[in-house]
């Protein structure tokens, strides 16, 4: 990295971020299509499976609170490389046929992904400060595509291996290990040329508490949480909901694939609408209401499920790009971006973790149709919160 010319270094940094994006969603999205098989194999009911789905999201919240300080001390590249190694290990651990390791491995996966979730926006802010929305859209596109493929092939791969769920979930560890090697090389090559972002983050560290005392930062965090709650309810429970509505599991799995692919395309689309805009409140409200309409449509007209899933994807994919972009757009430098990213994802994923858990209890105990109502209400709240989260202006000054 230190020996590369500046343009090549910038390209290498973007490629590394995109490779990181490959690893941050598939370990979670591959579980939803197989969750009924996990339950049948382990004997867990809907509430326990809901807790299993919520566990990585809880890990996102806890890990988000812990990721910032190691990045200050050791550097972004080093922390990301270690997190990816932990993620590969968690994927293998989760799939071992040993009592209790399903939970331990899932928790490790959540903590490891959190580091990438938090630090990727800081890397983008540092290396591409004038292309935050575009690079963020590319990052989420890769994340969504990989997650979509993982969901789409989960059941076919499971069927090919006799209906088991362990090997399909463990196989992605190979990809993560390769990406960890890429970031390991970047960490080894990091030197004085990469150090400027660390003093910025470190200088900002004494003021980290001011972010937690800032009302606007809390609103951005809540927006992050509500849009994440909608996403993780759908990712974990859409196949089960659609099966309850009469669709077969393979079709439901591919609907989850469509959800993520359309979400990826929508993420690019919203960057065009965001261009040259300083006030993003209208877009924030619109993407929240899109999810509301999609959930109501799926509830009232399940025969057109694929259309409603695609519409939900428009709202979800756009919301994610908007949420991640706000970390950079509403902060003055990479240090503040890391702080806001850490806070928003700590708070946000704590909120989001309640989604799959409550949805699992509600669907298993009452009716799966009520999960669609729950998601619509959360999305409506997201639209309201967007009025504060997406307004123009920095959260903190320089």
Write the layout of secondary structure elements.
Blueprint: H1 6-22, H2 26-29, H3 35-42, H4 46-74, H5 76-94, H6 101-127, H7 132-160, H8 166-170, H9 173-189, H10 197-204, H11 208-212, H12 215-244, H13 249-274, H14 281-300, H15 305-329, H16 334-365, H17 369-389
Helix pairs in contact: 1-6, 1-7, 1-9, 4-5, 4-6, 4-16, 5-6, 5-9, 6-15, 6-16, 7-13, 7-15, 10-16, 12-13, 12-15, 12-16, 12-17, 13-15, 14-15, 14-17, 16-17
Describe the protein.
The two termini are 29 Å apart. The protein has helices at residues 6-22, 26-29, 35-42, 46-74, 76-94, 101-127, 132-160, 166-170, 173-189, 197-204, 208-212, 215-244, 249-274, 281-300, 305-329, 334-365, 369-389. The longest helix has 32 residues, at 334-365. The model is unreliable at 1-5 and 192-206 (pLDDT under 50). It has 398 residues and is an all-alpha fold. The chain contains 17 helices and no strands.
Keywords:
single chain; 398 residues; mainly alpha; 81% helix; 0% strand; disordered N terminus
- The structure class reads mainly alpha
Cα gyration radius (Å): 20 Å
How much helical structure, as a percent, in the residues?
Answer: over 70%
What gap, in angstroms, lies between the N and C termini?
A: 29 Å
């Amino acid at each position: 990295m230190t020996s590369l010319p500046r343009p090549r270094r910038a390209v290498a940094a973007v490629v590394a971020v995109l490779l990181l994006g490959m690893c941050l969603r598939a370990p979670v999205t591959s579980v939803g299509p197989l969750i009924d098989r996990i339950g049948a194999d382990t004997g867990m009911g809907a509430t326990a499976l809901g807790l299993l789905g919520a566990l990585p999201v809880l890990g996102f919240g806890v890990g988000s609170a812990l990721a910032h300080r190691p990045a200050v001390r050791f550097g972004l590249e080093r922390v990301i490389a270690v997190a990816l190694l932990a993620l590969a290990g968690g994927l293998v651990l989760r799939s071992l046929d040993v009592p209790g390791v399903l939970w331990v491995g899932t928790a490790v996966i959540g903590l490891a992904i959190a580091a990438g979730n938090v630090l990727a926006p800081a890397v983008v802010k540092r290396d591409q400060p004038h292309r935050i929305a575009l690079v963020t859209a590319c990052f989420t596109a890769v994340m969504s595509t990989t997650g979509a493929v993982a969901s789409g092939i989960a059941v076919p791969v499971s069927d090919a291996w006799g209906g088991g769920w362990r090997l399909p979930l463990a196989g992605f560890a190979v990809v993560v290990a390769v990406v960890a090697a890429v970031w390991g090389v970047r960490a080894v090559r990091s030197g004085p040329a990469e150090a400027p972002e660390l003093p910025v983050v470190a200088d900002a560290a004494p003021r980290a508490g001011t972010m937690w005392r800032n009302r606007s930062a809390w609103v951005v965090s809540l927006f992050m949480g509500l849009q994440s709650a909608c996403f993780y309810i759908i990712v974990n429970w859409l196949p089960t909901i659609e099966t309850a509505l009469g669709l077969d599991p393979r079709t439901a799995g591919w609907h989850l694939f469509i959800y993520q692919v359309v979400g990826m395309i929508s993420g690019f689309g919203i960057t065009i609408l965001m261009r040259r805009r300083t006030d993003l409140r209208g877009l924030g409200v619109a993407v929240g209401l899109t999810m509301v309409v999609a959930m109501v449509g799926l509830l009232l007209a399940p025969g057109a499920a694929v259309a409603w899933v695609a519409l939900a994807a428009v709202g979800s994919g756009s919301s994610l790009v908007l949420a991640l972009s706000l970390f950079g757009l509403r902060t003055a430098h990479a240090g503040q971006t890391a702080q806001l990213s850490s806070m928003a994802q700590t708070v946000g994923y704590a909120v989001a973790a309640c989604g799959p858990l409550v949805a699992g209890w509600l669907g298993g105990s009452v009716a799966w149709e009520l999960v669609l109502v729950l998601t619509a209400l959360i999305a409506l709240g997201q639209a309201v919160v967007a009025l504060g989260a997406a307004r123009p202006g920095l959260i903190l000054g320089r």
